[in-house]
Design a protein that fits this description.
Blueprint (H helix, E strand, L loop, with lengths): L2 H19 L3 H4 L8 H8 L4 E6 L5 H14 L12 E6 L2 H15 L5 E8 L9 E8 L5 E8 L14 E5 L4 H10 L6 E6 L7 H7 L8 E6 L9 H9 L3 H7 L17 H4 E2 L9 E7 L6 E8 L5 E9 L4 H15 L9 E5 L14 H7 L2 E4 L6 H13 L7 E4 L3 H8 L15 H10 L14 H15 L6
Parallel strand pairs: 1-7, 1-8, 2-5, 2-6, 6-7, 9-15, 10-13, 12-15, 13-14
Antiparallel strand pairs: 3-4, 4-5, 10-11, 11-12
Helix pairs in contact: 3-4, 4-5, 13-15
Amino acid sequence: MREEEIIAKLLEIEGEERRRARKGPLELYNAGRKKHKKQIAFHKCKKRNRWVFGGNRSGKTECGAAECVYLARGVHPYRKNRDGVFGWVVSLSQQVQRDVAQKKVLFYLDPAWIEDIVMLSGRKGAPDSGIIDQIRVRNVFGGISVIGFKSCDQGREKFQGASLDFVWFDEEPPRDIYEECRMRVLDKKGDIFGTMTPLKGLTFLFDEIYMNERNDPEVWYEFMEWADNPFLDKEEISRCAALLGEKELASRRFGRFCAAEGLVYPEFSEEAHVISPFPVPHEWYDTVSIDPGLNNPLSAHWYAVDYDGNVYVIAEHYEAKRDIGYHAEKIKEISRRLGWHTDGKGRVSALIDPAANQRTLASAKSVSELFYEQGILVNTKVNKDLFSGIARVKSYLIGEGGKPKLYVFSNCVNMIREFKGYFWGSGDMPRKRGDHAMDELRYLLMTKPKNALPDPLPTPVMRDKQRLMRRLARRGGYGG
């Protein structure tokens, strides 16, 4: 090899070394001293339907774009990587696609990784200013991955046919497009993930993801707010927060779903009030509380109270379209599993809505009587005052000194769901929807549950004194 060729080869190698030493945006993403912990939590999550509900500028779109590039390149730091991945990025419109999601994906894609770009409009030499149809990405395993771009204004028909490994929704899609995309990932067991600011109120994603009404074990979500983004200026956060109203602040800063009327219990927080189950001492067991239902769900929860007056919701039975016999058997079954206290005949005591005493034309016996016959001793003497009860629940949620006095075990999923979806309606009354657990919780807390410390065991000296006092008493007194 001639000297000139050797020098040229050395220069080429040095250039490649310099190029590899230069870290691009994807390598620098959450790699410095400042890290966005909630972005990392999103990437670490192994669930197949993941959502970030985030405020504007909270960092939600960044993690969606980075996730797409991780998957397409085959370099995901927390998942099993594959070759030849095919996924979609779904925006509300082509203009929003160009200005937001498309721009972010291109930011994290090193040009050397791009084999080709297919444009819907504009020039592939300047993809930022046009509308991209597909980006063909070189996967580290040697094949080609495809990131396709779709917009909701194209209509559901444009989303049919494909078999996908992932779909990223940048902002909330219409329901029909969401459902169609779920079908696209079905055969490959692919992922759905979304990043959105919930500005439309209580839409289907409120029920589908936040409330998880179907109890889908693959659903996961995270709220992301301005303070979670370590790259936002704190003074700017304070300035912007001062300019927003209460509801706008809830959605645009905290990424919260908002109804016009507002939550009954905004004090409730899954982080503060939902805890992992632990072995509860039998001495803490208090009572069961029931809100009856036949066609509607019957809600029953088991409550424990510690010696400091903290209340724990430790188990639940929540089911609709069942008769009293079925519910009574379930209550007894759960009570046996917990080792719950019963009377001398093995019967379980419980609080219940006073309406259970009423008889209807369809039944000769009341709900209370039917429960009694099935071995559930229901007590209808509860305080049903709505506003006093709500105030009592709020006081337990707030607690004392910043520490709550009400905790819900994480397996009581229906009570947690009702807390999250219990909204005020018209006329200063809560909406009559999903309120069964909320009702029987009020009945329980209005009884002022207490659990006094047991009397201490007597010391040997005290036992001697007690024996002496009994002996003197038998002899006729203490003298005189």
